[in-house]
Design brief:
Layout: H1 9-39, E1 43-50, H2 51-67, E2 71-78, H3 82-94, E3 102-106, H4 110-115, H5 128-131, H6 136-140, E4 143-144, E5 147-148, E6 151-157, E7 159-163, H7 164-170, H8 178-190, E8 196-199, H9 206-218, H10 236-250, H11 263-271, E9 275-280, H12 283-288, E10 299-302, E11 314-323, H13 330-340, H14 343-353, H15 366-371, H16 375-383, E12 385-386, H17 394-409, H18 415-441
Parallel strand pairs: 1-2, 1-3, 8-9, 11-12
Antiparallel strand pairs: 3-11, 4-5, 6-11, 7-9, 7-10
Helix pairs in contact: 9-10, 17-18
């Protein structure tokens, strides 16, 4: 029987050895690379928002999460009052590491938050070309000391509402100046066409500061210069602005209780059909044209007025997003902000909510106009803006102004004395900060 030679031992072991090495290598790859990736938890970003805003934004946050499964956004419901939300943010920052990554900021919070060093500088995150697509005032409202800290996602602006039906029946064109509005109101009141001529927010709160910024600009005045810290509240233009509002009350054009009215009191009065002109915000349009409103289909809007020969402006409000300096996930936070402030996201958001865009193009978007035909006129309003001063102590400065406007409106102090006192206190407030700014710049 012929002898059968067995293959060398190493040949018999080659295949098993190769498979073993392959298995070991595969296990190592799985252990080192693939399994950690599969089991890695998504980055969680935390954002504090008012309850009513969470309802509006939640679908878009979920949409972002679906497209970015490695990022989750934890929405924390805050109080309805924006002042309380600001206090929660402030407390969190003062305690140290804020739990919030994305900061939803009112336009007037930017200087305070930026000056305190709580926000990341976003200046180099976004190109000038992209910024130019937004309403200019909304972008400027996100700056402090020439650096950008907030990207706008919704605009807001004070405007003049008026009864177009009454003016058309009387053959009167809408007023262009405060003086024309005054005369029109008096004449139509005398004819019994309307009870009140002009209603506005005179209550001692932030709303009176926003309203007064517009009247002040309309008379050629200014509140405070954020670059030089110059105060203009005791200048002739500011005193004229206060006198105009006081004369509206004294003459009966405005109701005597207007010094206690906020947005809703003035809206309800206008919506009941008792007022010819109203200063208020864009939200009024939807409510005034709702079923059951006595002025449905009878109103129009215009930019805020000015005195003869002056250029007025609408006080800009609105919200935007910034990134907390203490955030451990700034890149993911910026990715979320880019998505949520994109033109496409905002288009869908506006169609769903009826809020005011921050992109200029959306005011002229055919789909948006089909649903909100007044938006092209609204664009004229927001582009003609009057910003509140971008100073770190804005809240304190506003409180000073509110107090002295209140005593002037109620007759406890003359317009001149009230504005001189307001200017003096504001200068004292800004004086120490001016010195700090000089020291830091040297």
């Amino acid at each position: 029987m012929p002898k059968i030679n067995s293959p060398p031992l190493f040949r018999r072991q080659t295949r098993p050895t190769f498979l073993a090495l392959f298995a070991v290598t595969l296990a190592a790859v799985l252990f080192l690379f693939i399994l950690p990736a599969l089991t890695q938890q998504p980055v969680v970003l935390t954002m504090l928002m008012q309850g009513q805003d969470i309802v509006n934004w939640k679908p878009f946050v979920q949409e972002f999460e679906q497209k970015n499964p490695d990022i989750r956004i934890n929405l924390i419901e805050g109080p309805f009052d924006s002042n309380l939300v600001e206090n929660l943010y402030t407390s969190a920052f003062l305690l140290g590491d804020s739990p919030y990554d994305i900061i939803n900021m009112d336009i007037v919070w930017v200087p305070k938050f930026a000056a305190a060093g709580w926000m990341l500088d976003l200046t180099n995150k976004i190109s000038p070309e992209q910024l130019s697509k937004f309403i200019k005032g909304n972008v400027e409202g996100g700056r402090y000391r020439d650096k950008l800290y907030r990207i706008p996602h919704a605009s807001d602006a004070g405007m003049l509402y008026y009864r177009k039906d009454i003016l058309e029946q009387a053959g009167i064109k809408p007023p262009q100046t405060f003086e024309e509005m005054f005369t029109i109101s008096q004449n139509l009141q005398k004819q019994g066409k309307i009870k009140w001529g002009y209603v506005w927010q005179g209550k001692q709160y932030e709303g009176v500061s926003a309203m007064f910024v517009e009247v002040l600009a309309g008379f050629g005045g200014f509140w405070a210069n954020p670059q030089t810290f110059e105060v203009g509240l005791d200048k002739p233009e500011a005193i004229k602005a206060v006198e105009f509002l006081k004369s509206a009350i004294a003459s009966g054009i405005s109701p005597p209780g207007v010094s206690t009215y906020g947005e809703e009191e003035t809206r309800l009065l206008f919506q009941s059909g008792k007022a010819l002109f109203l200063r208020n915000w864009p939200y009024v349009w939807r409510l005034a044209n709702a079923e059951g409103s006595k002025v449905k289909g009878k109103i129009a809007i215009a930019p805020m007025l000015s005195s003869i020969g002056k250029q007025g402006g609408s006080c800009l409000g609105g919200w935007g997003w910034g990134i907390a300096k203490t955030s451990k996930h700034p890149e993911q936070a910026w990715k979320a902000i880019q998505y949520l402030t994109s033109e496409e996201t905002q288009r869908k958001f506006i169609l769903e909510t009826g809020l005011v865009p921050s992109y200029k193009s959306l005011f002229l978007d055919p789909k948006i106009i089909a649903r909100y035909p007044h938006y092209p006129q609204l664009l004229k309003v927001v582009e003609q803006s009057a910003l509140r001063p971008a100073i770190a102590q804005y809240a304190q400065a506003s409180d000073i102004l509110q107090r002295y406007l209140s005593v002037a409106f109620t007759g406890s102090m003359s317009s001149e004395k009230a504005m001189k006192a307001a200017a003096s206190e504001t200068r004292n407030l800004l004086g120490s900060f001016k010195q700090q700014a000089k020291v830091s710049s040297n």
